[in-house]
Amino acid sequence: MTQDTYRLGVMDGDGIGPEIVPAAVRVVDAAAQELDIEWVPLPVGRTAIDEFGTPLPESTVEALSGVDGWLLGPHDNASYPEPHRSRLNPSGFLRKHFDLFANIRPARAFDGARALVPGTDLVIVRENTQGFYADRNTFAGAGEFMPTPDVAIAHAIFTRESVERIAHEAFRLARQRRRRVTVVHKANVLRLTSGLFLDVCRDVARQYPDVEVGDAHIDAMAAALVRRAPEFDVIVTENMFGDILSDLTAEIAGSLGIAPSVNVSATRGMAQATHGSAPDIAGRDVANPVAMILSAAMLLEWLGERHDDPAPARVAGTIRDAVADTIRGGVTTPDLGGSAGTRAFTDAVVVSIKHMT
Ligand code: ATP
Ligand code: MG
Questions:
Q1: pTM for the whole structure
Q2: Distance CA 39, CA 193 (A)
């Protein structure tokens, strides 16, 4: 079913957020001529603390329940006054509240973006709710505790249901790509937890006989990626391994500044750059908006799939081509060795879109 209007929340966040999130909105608007997108600006982060006394106002969460998806800028928890600093951060809360169980993090080398391993084009599908970050777990409560002041204990949780749904996500994605899935685990040591993850992924793999499946230990995988990243297509893994591996693959592909992601459930999508709020460069018009722009494109692609509407995916393709063109043409921000500012880079992407559409 195609939809007339897509309503999307937009939250600038902290640090470089107010620079890169509006850049992403501008680019989507330029490319989305055949789509009707209604942006719903919502407060989050430091500005929300000043105005509402909390980094994630109840009104924001309520409004998000009524939209198709949203762009979430980075937030800088460390800069919040107490008690906000020690509480669950806004994106952690939203992942949990809306059960955004799949964190999709592509790493693609762009020509002209100084990739450490040229030819890299892979996607990490990270389970977002369980594993070793058990604080995110829905039924375990706090995942860490200290029985005495000198002993700290953490637990990890894996359930068949949660591993199944992330595995299906990975295999479905592989069918749209090069049809290869690598399951990353540590089942030789963590026999029960990582063992369950591997076993369930292998069970799910039987339903996708057209997709080639392999597996690797997390340590061996880290080493393999540094030299052989282009051999990998879709990597499915648990929460903490995925968090760490995706920073590695972002750098292999060029820079944190170009690494996009979405967090999705069956019914909601949240676009979020992989990087943080970069307070060291905030407000200077030097931040790279690519990660945020490409995250917005991923959200459109997800929306199109969910609503069985080809238009958002076409818009996403236009955005990706325009970003790739701009970088190939030598217009880049300082993190990629160029001298374009955030605004100048965004202008160049918009011009490239106008040439295409
Ligand atoms: P967080 O705790 O929020 O994840 P972090 O400490 O991991 O934050 P980031 O904010 O991700 O740090 O920044 C890490 C480094 O990368 C910083 O030096 C920052 O300036 C740089 N950086 C991050 N994002 C960008 C970007 N979009 N453009 C340019 N540089 C960036
Ligand atoms: Mg970080």
A1: 0.92
A2: 42
Return the H-helix or E-strand segment holding 219.
helix 218-228
Digit-coded pLDDT (tens) for 146-173: 899 999 888 889 999 999 999 999 999 9
Token pair of 263 as six digits: 């967090």
Q: Whose CA is nearest to atom 25 of ligand 1?
A: 257
Which residue has its alpha carbon closest to ligand 1 atom 17? 278
Distance from the Cα of residue 48 to its chain's centroid: 23
Concerning whether 243 is annotated as a catalytic residue, the answer is yes
Distances in whole angstroms, Cα of residue 36 to Cα of each of 11, 30, 32, 39, 351: 19, 12, 7, 10, 20
ipTM of the complex: 0.94
Q: Is 80 a catalytic residue?
A: no
150 and 170 Cβ atoms separated by less than 8 Å: no
> What is the distance between the alpha carbons of residues 257 and 110, in angstroms, rounded to a whole number?
12
Give the distance (Å) from ligand 1 centre to CA of residue 269.
23
